[in-house]
C-alpha cells in the first residue's frame, strides 16, 4: 500500500511540475532582442506603446578564478555582478555609498539573482551597473567596483500594448 502512495505522490508532483518545465513557452509573442551594453550606455527606455519582458541579463565574463596553492581544492575569485542601478530615477544601487539593489547577474553563482522575467511597462527607464571585485560577508567589507571594461547583454521580448 505504501508503494502505491509513493507512486501516486510522485506522479502528482510530476503533473504539477510539468508547466514549469517548459517555462520559456509562457512568454508572450513579441520581438526578441539581444542588446549589448557597457556601463556608460546602460540606461534603457521602454518605447511608448510597448512592454518589455526582461528574460535574461548576462556578462561576457563571469570571473577570474585563482586556485589557492597553499590550500589545495580551494580558490579565490573576483565576482562580476550586474545590479539594477535605478528605475525611473529612483536609485536602487549606489556603489560609492555601498548601497546594493537587486542583482540581475552574478558570476559565478548565477542562481542567486533577481527572478526573471522582469516586466517593464511603456516609458519605464531602467539603468544597470556592471561591477566586479571581492564580495565580503559584510557590506562594509565589500570591494565591488564599477567595471567599464566588461560588457553585458540584455535579452528582452518586446510586445505591443
Largest sheet: 7 strands, antiparallel
Instruction: Supply the helix-strand structural class.
Output: mainly beta
Assembly status: single chain
Tell me the helix content: 10-25%
How far apart, in Å, are the first and last alpha carbons? 54 Å
Mean pLDDT, rounded to whole units?
A: 81
Q: Notable features of this structure?
A:
about 160 residues; mainly beta; 7-stranded antiparallel beta sheet; 4-stranded antiparallel beta sheet; 1 helix; about 45% strand; elongated
How would you describe this protein?
With 161 residues, the chain is mostly beta strands. The protein is 12% helix and 44% strand. It is built from one helix and eleven strands. It has one helix at 2-21, and strands spanning 31-37, 43-45, 50-59, 63-67, 75-87, 90-91, 103-107, 118-120, 125-134, 143-146, 152-160. The strands form two sheets. Strands 2, 4, 5, 6, 7, 9 and 10 form a seven-stranded antiparallel beta sheet that branches. A four-stranded antiparallel beta sheet has the order 1-11-3-8, with no helix packed on it. It starts with a helix and ends with a strand.
Give the gist of this structure.
By secondary structure, this protein is mainly beta. It is built from 1 helix and 11 strands.
Indicate the topology.
Blueprint: H1 2-21, E1 31-37, E2 43-45, E3 50-59, E4 63-67, E5 75-87, E6 90-91, E7 103-107, E8 118-120, E9 125-134, E10 143-146, E11 152-160
Antiparallel strand pairs: 1-11, 2-9, 3-8, 3-11, 4-5, 5-6, 5-7, 5-9, 9-10
Amino acid at each position: 500500500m505504501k508503494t502505491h502512495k509513493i507512486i501516486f505522490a510522485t506522479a502528482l508532483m510530476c503533473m504539477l511540475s510539468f508547466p514549469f518545465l517548459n517555462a520559456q513557452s509562457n512568454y508572450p509573442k513579441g520581438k526578441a532582442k539581444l542588446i549589448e551594453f557597457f556601463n556608460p550606455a546602460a540606461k534603457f527606455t521602454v518605447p511608448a506603446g510597448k512592454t518589455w519582458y526582461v528574460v535574461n541579463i548576462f556578462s561576457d565574463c563571469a570571473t577570474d578564478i585563482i586556485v589557492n596553492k597553499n590550500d589545495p581544492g580551494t580558490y579565490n575569485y573576483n565576482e562580476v555582478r550586474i545590479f539594477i542601478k535605478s528605475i525611473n530615477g529612483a536609485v536602487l544601487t549606489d556603489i560609492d555609498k555601498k548601497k546594493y539593489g537587486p542583482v540581475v547577474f552574478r558570476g559565478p553563482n548565477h542562481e542567486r539573482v533577481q527572478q526573471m522575467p522582469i516586466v517593464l511597462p511603456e516609458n519605464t527607464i531602467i539603468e544597470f551597473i556592471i561591477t566586479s571585485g571581492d564580495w565580503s560577508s559584510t557590506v562594509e567589507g565589500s570591494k565591488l567596483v564599477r567595471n567599464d571594461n566588461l560588457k553585458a547583454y540584455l535579452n528582452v521580448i518586446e510586445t505591443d500594448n
